[in-house]
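Q: Given only this backbone (159 positions), what sequence would you predict?
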């Protein structure tokens, strides 16, 4: 389990997904659809679909982690909209070790692969991403979190 944390708020996620949409829009390519890598890629894919006006949204269900422990990736449900990913955007929330990315790329070698966040080990496996996060840091997404009380910093401060 990573010691350091990077907490991503809904606002930040939305802003970063819009930045990713801007970048992809500037490529001036015609996309046949989006493929979300579930589950983490689903909310980024929904935001990109809205921003880019793409209505064909498919998914490939892959599980690589269980309780922050990496395992062999498995496809739980395959994509149906394309054979090889040509002219499709492939979207995930992040690339960490790159194990998931390598695995999905074998299945969809022609897709354009974008993630919102990337750690150094996985970065070479994606075509584009928005922000880099250190390898020793665990990214917490807004769907993993809830608002809670925090004690004041100074010991003598009123609680
Ligand atoms: O680069 P890697 O080391 O392979 O890690 C990245 C993958 O791990 C997480 O998915 P996870 O398997 O936890 O499933 P989830 O998206 O359903 O939460 C994340 O959403 C990426 O898909
Ligand atoms: O929520 C997550 N945060 C991470 O940093 C990560 N790395 C792999 N899988 C991950 N899931
Ligand atoms: Mg995932």
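A: Predicted residues:
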């Amino acid at each position: 389990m990573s010691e350091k944390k990077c907490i991503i708020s809904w606002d930040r996620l939305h802003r970063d997904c819009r930045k990713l949409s801007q970048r992809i829009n500037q490529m001036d390519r015609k996309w046949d659809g989006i493929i979300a890598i579930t589950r983490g890629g689903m909310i980024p894919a929904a935001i990109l679909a809205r921003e880019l006006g793409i209505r064909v949204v498919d998914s490939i269900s892959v599980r690589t982690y269980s309780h922050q422990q990496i395992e062999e990736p498995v496809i739980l449900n395959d994509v149906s909209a394309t054979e090889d990913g040509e002219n499709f955007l492939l979207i995930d929330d992040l690339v960490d070790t790159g194990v998931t990315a390598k695995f999905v790329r074998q299945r969809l070698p022609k897709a354009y692969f974008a993630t919102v966040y990337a750690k150094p080990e996985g970065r070479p496996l994606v075509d584009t991403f928005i922000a880099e996060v250190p390898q020793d840091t665990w990214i917490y997404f807004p769907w993993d979190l809830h608002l809670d009380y925090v004690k004041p910093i100074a010991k003598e401060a009123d609680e």
